[in-house]
Amino acid sequence: MFYRLSGIRHTSYPAARQLWPIAADRWQVGLVTALALAAPVLVSDLYLGSYVLPWLIWTAAALSLSLLMGLGGQLHFGFAAVMAIGAYSSIHLTRAGVPFEFALLGGGVAAAVIGTAFGAAALRVKGLYLVMATLAMQYLVDWVITNVPAISGGAQATLRTPEVSFLLLPLESLDARYYVALLWTVLMTLFFLNVKRTSFGRALAAIRDKDFAAAVIGVDPFRTKLMAFMTASFAGGVSGAILAFCYYGAVTPEQFGFNVSIQLVAMVLVGGLGSVIGGYFGAGFVLLVPIVLTNLIAGLAGAGWISVSQNLAAHLPLIFYGGMIIGFLLFEPLGLAKIYDNIRKYFLVWPFRHSGS
Amino acid sequence: MQHDPVTARDPRMLHPDWKPEDTLIALLARNAREHPDRVALRERDHGIWQQTTWAEYLDEVLSLAAGFEAEGIGPGDIVLVTGDNRARLYAATLGLIALRAVPSPAYSDARPEELLDQMTREGIRAAVVEDQEQVDKLESVRDRRPELARILYDDPRGLGDKAPAGASALSDLLARGRARLKAEPGLRDDLVSRASVFDIAVLLHSSGTTGAPKGIPLRHGHVLSGVRNAAAAGYFREGEEHMAYLPMAWVGDFSFSIAAAIELKFTVNVPENQETALHDLREIAPTLYFASPRAWSAMLTRVQVGIAETSGLKRKLYDHFMPFALKLEREKLEGRSPSALQKLWRGVGDAVIYGPLRDQLGLRRVARPYTAGEAIGEDVFLYFRALGLNLRQFYGQTENCALAVAQSSEDISLTTVGRPFPGVEAKIDESGEILLKGGNIFDGYFENEKATAESLRDGWLCTGDAGQFDADGQLVVLGRLSEVMHKADGTRFIPTYLENRLKFAPAIRDVCVIGKERGFLSAIVCIDFSAVGQWAQERGIPYTSYAELSQRPEVVDLVRGEIARLNAAVPAELSIDRFVNLHKEFDPDDGEVTRTRKLKRGVIDARYGQIIEAVYEARDEIEYEAQITYETGETGVLTRTLKIGDLKGGQH
């Protein structure tokens, strides 16, 4: 209805690959960007700090994992550990006096090095076996962090993030932390959008679809898989560091446990493998829906609309949440991104049923 | 101007107001000078639009001209140009014009014999063609036209080093021309200034339905004056996006894609090929769009098919908003303007249905959509106007660059073709023929004094069309003059005019209007079996065959309604008073119509004489004994009772 496709023509092949050739997509992206920039003004601090901010950071983390799982087809069930490496490394680097900007990079590099070492397993194994290998990484990293006091400060300790500033902007106020997180998520989004159009992105897709077929057409599986683990781990490490500095303010090993890894996988799957908008939808769904459901049921019970026991009221949101995940995946196995895509296409061919008529 | 064009053939005397240096080539050079970087041509190649600026366009034209000259082509030489629309063919046409040679376009689907006839008639010795297909056609008749020495082709696919003797690629010629331009410094300016406004810019051809096609030479001055008249009346604007997809041999394409494009700095967009033209149209979204009534009608069908298979909500919205817009458009034609609420609701419809539909068709930016060539169906015309397109009709012939008469935005009507352009005069002579006069009227047929004398009288072009002016001075085209008939009281009528208007009704497939030397007009109607069959099904009217369906009282009433609608729209003396539904369709195998479904009146009059007499004897029905020839050659007789419908209450 609001998509206008006539008059879109390309005068060169590079121009034909532009990200948003349709005007309606451009103004939608522009609108969302403007809303994101104005969020500190539009949204109360409570909502900004406890909903929007974590949503953005987890989106960046989900996109990092989606790069590996969605584009490269490499399963990873220990991604929380990768984030933990980034978080702890950057905290220790800033404590050692390294500026925050470099500490972020350092955290990313540390995560990339360790993540790639474990990713090397992917050169030999695939599918469930790779899941096992990455699970091993999750537990090994957890164990090391917990049991090496030099890293965690002791098994029960909480490591506070030091006061830092990013590009001369002190990271004390919520707004400053929000904008740093927004910057990183936007960077991650742009990177993800563009990597699909590069030779690396295409090599990843080839590896995902059939690695030995890709090898036959000249894509080096060794190099490409390691690159995939390295890129995703670097991005995951930085996301972990941002999570620690901009949201948590203090880290404990439990914040990066196995269940967090599973949540990340859920974000990627529910959102839609290898999709940018899926990353946003998936993180939003996994993160915000349980909260919304809890508030809703508590509100309903409080107002006397439904009568449930205290015990059931605590579990009802989880029941609905689980049901919704199953429902969505049954209804559209390709995730929320596919649902969005279907809606977009419905309007794209408006008022016809399909294009080419 | 009182010169007889047959004797005073010097164009300088015929057109004293033309300035010699006012040529297409000079205007092209002006564009290249004033807007060197503006896009002049766009051609789709493997999905990518290759752009040519005005400076590059001029350079290509002059290089090709230099190349042609090196090949021995010079002033007055007639050169065959044939193929689908290609940017390089347009440049080659202009290159020939720069050399004062005469491009003679032929339709890309012309048969080899037709090309041979054209080459023999016009003494053609060189040809510029699109691709291997055209080269092969020329090659097949080359033994009968040995004078054809040079064939230049644009697309080398399938030719390469297998090209026949004398055939070479235009790209090689272009390279040689470029080298020449570089080597001879004064050549560029010389080539730009050679042509004169009195030169023949193009040699077009009449359709040749009767006898051999006649050559129609148009001079620079003719096409430029046509274009300027049209621009003065606002039919073209400067810098239009134009889609060049109609055949290059058709006068409209020369007028639009070459003359108007150069004079008014259009961007001319050439589709990848004929099959992708509609898709490419959407990529371009032109601002000026010209299509035949048949093409508009095909577009309407496309929309209807798309809507028929679309999903619930979309169809519901369409089914609400489209009839609403049609109703408003109909009221507007009747002179009633919509209320504020209706305007608001139309705005909603524009956002929801009309706008998206225009976008789907690639007509989102079209401010000036036109149709010409034949009468456009009322439904089609109204539909696109309701969709928010200012669709208007043109009237013209090759002889006047197809730029003579058009409807203006203010007074659209279903029956007229509008008013003459400024600079064009129109009048109706005593025999009812439309005569036109103006700078865009040609000076005479190619080497055909007799035809010239018949069509040009004292500077007036006899169009061969019968017409009249309506009350507000708009021209109404009735049909070919050769088809005019008279009733017994001398009233003039043109059966095809009435027939065409009746045939716009979906229920009527064919109709033959009778009334020559009779007291009143009557019609033999062949219903459209599929449309009326569908109509009958929806209403639960039983029938077994065409013959039975045609005689159902409901169907007779349906046809009566359609005729009554026509009668209301035409002068009283042209109303059809009685009609009969025929028990069969007119069939080319029975000789009643030609293969292109044109009526053969003599056959119909003879075969259905019995029925016609019954109609004029004021009877209510007739027992008709139909002669039937079986496939075995035996003949039999079938008796049918045909009902005769009356619209005047039987006072005849």
TrEMBL record, chain A:
A GO MF annotation of the entry reads: branched-chain amino acid transmembrane transporter activity
Source domain of life: Bacteria
Q: Which Pfam families match?
A: BPD_transp_2
Query: What PANTHER family is this protein classified in?
Result: ABC TRANSPORTER PERMEASE PROTEIN, HIGH-AFFINITY BRANCHED-CHAIN AMINO ACID TRANSPORT SYSTEM PERMEASE
- Carries keyword Phosphoprotein? no
Q: Where in the cell is it found?
A: Cell membrane
Q: How does the record classify its membrane topology?
A: Multi-pass membrane protein
Task: Please classify the protein's predominant subcellular localization into one broad category.
Answer: membrane
TM spans (from-to)? 27-49, 55-88, 100-123, 176-195, 226-250, 256-278, 285-306, 318-337
Identify this protein by name. Answer: Amino acid/amide ABC transporter membrane protein 2, HAAT family
UniProt keywords (A-Z) are: Cell membrane, Membrane, Transmembrane, Transmembrane helix
- Any GO CC annotation of this UniProt entry: plasma membrane
TrEMBL record, chain B:
Gene3D superfamilies given for it? N-terminal domain of ligase-like
Q: Which UniProt keywords apply?
A: ATP-binding, Nucleotide-binding
Q: Which GO terms describe its cellular component?
A: membrane
- Hydrolase as a keyword of this entry, yes or no, is no
Q: Name one GO molecular function term.
A: long-chain fatty acid-CoA ligase activity
AMP-dependent synthetase/ligase domain residues are 29-446
Q: This chain belongs to which protein, by name? A: Long-chain acyl-CoA synthetase
Could you tell me which species this protein originates from? Answer: Limimaricola pyoseonensis
